[in-house]
Amino acid sequence: MAKGERKAGGKPPAPADGAVDRIPGGDAPAGGFVQLLTPDGEHLGSVTTADGTTYSVDFTDEEYRGFYRDLVTVRRLDAEATALQRQGELGIWASLLGQEAAQVGSGRALRQQDMAFPTYREHGVLYCRGIDPIMPFGLFRGVDQGGWDANEHKFNGYTIVIGSQTLHATGYAMGVTMDGKTGSPDGEAVIAYFGDGATSQGEVNESFVWAGVFNAPMVFFCQNNQYAISEPLERQTRIPLYRRAAGYGFPGIRIDGNDVLASYAVTRAALDNARNGQGPTLIEAYTYRMGAHTSSDDPTRYRIASEVESWKAKDPIARVKAFLAKQQVADADFFAEVDETARKLALDLRERVLAMPDPQPVTMFDHVYPNSSPEVDAQRKAFDEYHASFEGSGH
Amino acid sequence: MAETITLGKALNHGLRRALENDPKVVIMGEDVGKLGGVFRITDGLQKDFGEDRVIDTPLAEAGIIGTAVGLAIRGYRPVCEIQFDGFVFPAYNQIVAQVAKMFYRSKGKVRVPMVIRIPFGGGIGAVEHHSESPEAYFSHTPGLKVVSCANPADAYTMIQQAINSDDPVVFFEPKRRYWEKGEVELEAPLSGAYPLHAARVLRPGTDATLLAYGPMVRVALDAAAAAAEDGRNLEVIDLRTLSPVDYPAIFESVRRTGRAVVVHEAPGNLGIGAELAARITEECFYSLEAPVLRVTGYDIPYPAARVEEDFLPDLDRVLDAVDRSFGW
Ligand SMILES: Cc1ncc(C[n+]2csc(CCOP(=O)(O)OP(=O)(O)O)c2C)c(N)n1
């Protein structure tokens, strides 16, 4: 091998400015991020970024308690889903464990008129939209493929093909502009969720181009949970993800994704910029996937326990609890009540998931086309007749 | 009053009427605005309807279709132009995994009424990637409807019907026929038009059925005219709709004639003709005097322009197949 040549798959040279994004162990990344609530529960009040933007939050005690309740609830529901999967009641589950703050903060930042385009992991955002948490369980149980009305819930269907929804969000946001629904504080904004792995997809990069060119009223919310299944961030990027935005001509900003207040403040500001006609923002929520990629994954094959341990110290819920306790705005009774309420919700969810009937097989022929098709109709009829030909057929 | 115009102009008129009739219709694609498209199918539309209705997009096909999906969810009816057949593949994921499945996976709650226009086929002496026939890929995909027009009158009505349909429609335009002229009733109401998803007998006959669509319809008609001189009375059916195929019309014809020859430019292996042959065999077995024969492109990449005439089915190859059918 000639001098200077690198082996395929070798380590790329360090970026010129030495910006290493991912610090194993979960310290704040080089270059920092927007944080308003430290892992110890210290409320920083406000932060000003290098470009002079100040982010601050000042909630009522009730609102702070509300964040805590949301965080605990979505984690509890998630745990129930994981248990349901282990018991064979769900085919698969994509856990949000560790990403509660990124999702609850951004989810609460959405205004009612805003539209969200999730991946398959945004159960916390779904919950914050006021949607019944059972809604995506048909998909994971295998009794349907989602089956909800994106417009009714202002929450698009879960999208499993990595990155595709970012283009849908961008087109939808272009439609918002065409409808004249931007340029004022009560305008509409759109948020697209995706992961660090998704940032390598052509479609995601195309959506950045489009959003920039058309000044689309939207927020790209990337939950950098450090892994795309087994592949670490370094396999997706040579520069910090938020800095990609510069190349497309709009602001990019990194937040402490385990800080619900930062997630809320920065997302709210970005959404409001969008609705006011100032175009897109990329937010990189720097977080960690505490669990497996999905219930089918075995993370011990590709990451070490000490890394996970170090991220535990940055838990998104513990810091809110510490803050509430320190401020003396919540006591043991409150925490116990939140746990109990979440437990009951989870129980209710479990019962309703268990009660989800399998669909009649013939319904697989439903909704192929809005205007139907004689071919599908004929196959449905033949299917029915075939099954009816068996005595005692349940069909 | 009927006007005599080219197929390309008929599409242009149809698009114009769709834009006039429904403010939610938007046209998007590469160079569709100021330029009017590389084939001028959208000529003058941006000037009259504005940059928000006729959108010059960035040069990225997945982006065109993906953002069109979002616009459709928002309530728009996007009409996307893919510049050439060979450039649809960057959008293939969006078309097959998203466009085709939105209605299904949402249990009928999310519609993406959109049209994907693709100029297709060869015969124009083009450089590679500009002469392909990818219709089978899309016809194979449940959730998509696929049609192809073959003459100006159909081009005018079919494009409007496709836009009005809530189904996602892949609309194949026979690019080498863009300049062929025919009579078009521009004022005729769409409601009385021949249905979008129906085949049409263009030339009634009794001895064999020629099945073609898009650019090959002209070849089939010419072959039938030539065969008539030899005393053979061939029926020519323009399939018009490739998904779903209008099988009842085909079966009715083949049961009468007892012979069928399918013609398309796309490679034969697992193509539209293969499916037609199978279905005709299943349904018309006792009426058949000979196996269903296919005249298609060869199973090779589309060749260089200087030899494309030897690749494309032509009158002689169609007549040869007819001879073989009669010789069985
Ligand atoms: C186009 C595509 N390729 C591969 C997969 C399989 N797959 C599912 S999730 C995933 C990793 C996604 O990583 P990331 O975008 O970081 O999101 P995360 O799951 O970590 O939230 C892969 C490779 C897929 N769903 N879609």
Secondary structure elements and their pairing?
The complex is a heterodimer of chains A (395) and B (328).
Chain A: E1 46-48, E2 54-56, H1 61-86, H2 100-109, E3 115-117, H3 123-128, H4 137-141, H5 150-153, H6 164-178, E4 190-195, H7 202-213, E5 218-224, E6 227-228, E7 231-232, H8 244-248, E8 252-256, H9 260-278, E9 281-286, H10 305-312, H11 316-326, H12 332-354, H13 374-388
Parallel strand pairs in A: 3-4, 4-5, 5-9, 8-9
Antiparallel strand pairs in A: 1-2, 6-7
Chain B: E1 2-6, H1 7-21, E2 25-29, H2 45-49, E3 54-56, H3 61-73, E4 77-81, H4 92-99, H5 102-105, E5 115-120, H6 135-139, E6 145-148, H7 152-164, E7 169-174, E8 181-185, E9 200-203, E10 208-212, H8 216-229, E11 234-238, E12 241-243, H9 247-257, E13 260-267, H10 272-284, E14 293-297, H11 308-311, H12 315-326
Parallel strand pairs in B: 2-3, 2-4, 4-5, 5-7, 6-7, 10-11, 10-13, 13-14
Antiparallel strand pairs in B: 1-8, 6-12, 9-11
Bound molecules: thiamine diphosphate.
The site of thiamine diphosphate (TPP) has 14 residues of chain A, from strand 6.
Region (Disordered) (chain A): 1-25
GO molecular function (chain A): magnesium ion binding; oxidoreductase activity, acting on the aldehyde or oxo group of donors, disulfide as acceptor
Pfam families (chain A): E1_dh (PF00676)
The CATH topology annotation of the largest domain in chain A reads as Rossmann fold
Catalogue the unreliable spans of chain A. 1-26
Distance between the ends of chain B: 48 Å
Global geometry of chain B: globular
Bound molecules: thiamine diphosphate
Major sheet of chain B: size, sense and barrel closure? 7 strands, mixed
Shape estimate of chain A = globular
Mean pLDDT across residues of chain B: 98
State Rg of chain B: 19 Å
Tell me roughly what share of residues is in helical segments of chain A.
Answer: 40-55%
Q: Using a beta-carbon cutoff below 8 angstroms, give the protein chain pair with the largest interface and the number of residues from each chain.
A: A-B, 44 and 48 residues
Give the second-level CATH assignment, the architecture of the largest domain in chain A: 3-Layer(aba) Sandwich
